Amino acid sequence: MWRGRPLPLTLSPSGENLQESGHLMDYIAKNKNSLLQQAVTHGAVLLRGWDASPEDFADAFEGLELSKFPYVGGAAPRHMVVRDVVYTTNESPPSEPIPFHHEMAQVPNPPNYVAFYCEREPSEGGETPIILSRAVAEYFERTYPEFYQKVLNLGVRYVRTMPLENDNSSAIGRSWKSTFGVETVEEAEDVMTNMGTTWEWLENGDCRTTTATVPALRSEPRLNDVRTFFNAIVAAYTGWVDSRNDPTKSVLLGDGTPLTEAQGAALLDIQRFQMEQRTVFKWRVGDILIIDNRLVMHSRNPFKDDKSRRILAAIGGAPLYLEEKEKEVKGVQHFLTLRSGDRMPSLGYGVWKVQKDATANSVYVIMFERGVRAQCSRIEIILMIYQSCRSFTQRERQHANTNTRTIRTQIRSTTCGISSHRCCL
């Protein structure tokens, strides 16, 4: 539970006849958009009570209609289980805990969703704790403001030495061949170059890599630009340890600066906060946990090594319907020229920030309908000027809402032929 909302939201069939896997597929087909929205609202959704097999899990995940997402760049050793959809989870020893992280946060473009399925429930331990990333970000900013600001401004880099072959004794033992989906050194270098990763080949065939600088604190536009602790810096600093890697050297600030002892201590304290505030539930056979990877971090508790636990995973990108919309937008080449001389793509109507004007942080509300380009300048409106939209006070937000209602009324009263449109903020 976080601020009155359950984490995860648990959904179950209401009758025995609805527990069959076929009904799960029907439920997913009818409610996929609702499920994804509930994942935004709550952070994660637990489907419990359906008699689902690994194949059903693959079908259900595909039924969400997410873009395919290859597991390229991840650190954990895994094997494919069902088609190219379902993988094993981290195959490191059961005695090793896996710290909190966002899935593949160390790569430039991580997945949007990660889902887990319980094929065999563990006899002891083996839970998959979760925590809202925004709660961690709030604690980080409140407790370590200077370190927070450095991470926000500079981003981070991750340093990891990958073995020549998979090492299942390590939580980060995935080989460079498997990590990059290649067979040769030349192919690996091509992939690393495209990812912005630098490397050093070692005499034994291992590869020491340093990622491109990636954000460690992100703004989530679906939640009014709330900050999330979107990274794996605690996981790396506390858990990237094996015969090849020193975890205290696995994280750099974006400018290449190693973490200080005080900054390392701050990460250990953040780990303590995560452990205190996490949500833990016992796995049951057939459970499917859908996590919005942009909002929620996950981890793994140690478990008894009696072969009882088998948890599978799947990862996905953005919903396909959003990608289709992006493709449509990319095909539009119309531009709108403001009085300032700035040119902006005419994507419909909405909010843009003007980049080159003297008031670079001004927020303009532009409405545009193809076919009436010449009339658009009449309803170009400077809504408000603030240095940072994120710094709005409550009073300022109320003021903005009042202005927005007024502007909507004014726009509807225009005679430029687009009065049926609403100004969406």
Protein architecture, described:
- With 425 residues, the chain is α+β, with helices and mostly antiparallel strands.
- The protein has 2 domains: 9-322, Double-stranded beta-helix; 333-412, no CATH class.
- Helices cover 29% and strands 21% of the residues.
- The chain is built from 10 helices and 21 strands.
- The strands form 6 sheets. The protein has a 7-stranded mixed beta sheet with strand order 1-2-14-6-16-4-3, with helices on one face.
- A hairpin with an 8-residue loop joins β19 and β20.
- It is globular and about 60 Å long.
- It starts with 8 loop residues before the first strand and ends in a 13-residue tail after the last helix.
- Mean pLDDT is 79; it is low at 331-343, 345-397 and 399-425.
